[in-house]
Specification:
With 242 residues, this protein is an alpha/beta fold. It has one domain: NAD(P)-binding Rossmann-like Domain (Rossmann fold), CATH 3.40.50.720. It is built from eight helices and seven strands.
Length: 242
């Protein structure tokens, strides 16, 4: 694993499973981690465990994001804050839910990128951003009109940001995981009639773990990935190769 030598990294969504696992692995790799998330209790527990600092801000508010990030010196960012939305078809979707999912998953990540990249440019040391997207942006999944659309937007934010920030030696990539059986996922994917047929079509045939998503995130942030930018990396057990 890369040695980050105290480089400062911000992780949003750190109160959830993938975000918390990423914080743990980054701290183990020598990063100076600031963790942000919705659950204050989970963040406090994570901070006690890892020594990471905590930072509260609202991903849906530009003022809140700007006020929180403008004064930070940052090398890296993991945009892991997310909203799973609803399971619905395009014919049934609640547009207010769609708007909420877009506001957090795509707009929120863009706001963090906007102000974090200013910090990186100001410092002049380059940097790396990893956006936590989803296989739902790469293939059509039943019921995922809101979530999949938000992550497809996030993938384009990744590509355009990589193009625009490359001249500052700032790399931007995304990881596109399959299902991790977190509480957010279990309500839908934990159903036998949903999860069973899905796993039968996946070459590796199992759910991913939080650590299996966190490890590629840490790699993409580190020096071993210094020539990788603009990539959307499936971590999906081969599902998207079908």
């Amino acid at each position: 694993m890369s040695d980050f030598n105290g480089r400062p990294v911000l992780v949003t969504g750190a109160s959830g499973g993938i975000g918390a696992a990423t914080v743990r692995q980054l701290v183990s790799a020598g990063a100076d981690v600031t963790a942000s998330g919705r659950s204050v209790r989970n963040l406090e527990t994570l901070a006690e465990e890892t020594g990471a600092r905590t930072l509260a801000f609202d991903l849906t508010s530009e003022d809140s994001v700007r006020d929180a990030i403008e004064g930070l010196d940052l090398y890296g960012v993991v945009n892991c804050g997310g909203n799973g939305g609803e399971i619905a078809t395009p014919m049934e979707t609640d547009i207010s839910v769609f708007d909420e999912v877009i506001a957090i998953n795509a707009r929120g990540a863009l706001l963090v990128t906007k102000y974090a990249s200013r910090s990186m440019i100001r410092l002049g040391r380059g940097g790396a951003i990893v956006n936590v997207s989803s296989q739902a942006s790469l293939v059509a999944l039943h019921g995922h009109i809101s979530y999949g659309s938000s992550k497809a937007a996030l993938d384009n934010i990744t590509r355009v940001s990589a193009l625009e920030l490359g001249k500052h030696n700032i790399r931007v990539n995304s990881v596109n995981p399959t299902v991790v059986m977190t509480p957010m996922s279990a309500g839908h994917w934990g159903q036998d009639e949903v999860g069973g047929p899905y796993l039968e079509t996946m070459p590796l045939g199992r759910w991913a773990t939080e650590d299996e998503i966190a490890a590629p995130i840490v790699f993409l942030l580190g020096d071993g990935a210094s020539m990788i930018t603009g990539v959307c990396l499936p971590i999906d057990g081969g599902y998207c190769s079908q």
